[in-house]
Amino acid sequence: NVEGWQIKRLEEIGVIFSGSTPSTSKPSFWDGNIVWVTPNDLSQLNTPYLYNSGKKITEQGLKNCSAQILPPNSIIISSRAPIGYIAINRVECCTNQGCKSFQLRREYNPEFVYYNLHFNINKIKMLGEGTTFAEISKTALAKVEIPFLENYEEQEQIAAVLSTIDRAIEQTEAIIAKQQRIKTGLMQDLLTKGIDENGNIRSEETH
Asked: Does the predicted model carry a pTM greater than 0.70?
């Protein structure tokens, strides 16, 4: 083992919760203000952080199912359909049964855990194989062994480097998306109107 790293079972890094869904036939359980996360919500994130969900439940809905409220800066991972989306919640939330979550122990930096789980995601995905409907149980997830750094400051430094790169990627993707929109507009004009002798797009007014 490299110095400072120790193999940990995932149950050692925090308390693992399964999610749950209140009865969909009871309107009083739905459209509340409790963020209720599904794998679909996780699939739509383009940053590590989760602030909201497509559907929300009420206090009554929460009481009537086995979902647990997660404090901010926990880790949520989709455990089926598909396995392996990961997020850090920035708001209190709960999840449906398609997600498992970790309320992390204080000695683990959420961003570090997020990147470390991503890096080791194949170990987790392998557990879901061999079942008709790929899914990971809480028990199986608890026993997954992954190397973790013990030093919190070092965890923070690693997370900071990777977060910086993630932000740069986000900005680059935003620029690419903007250029794509410009190109689409230009193609529309250039390939329907053409260019005049001054190098400008021809307009109906001048021709």
From this structure: yes
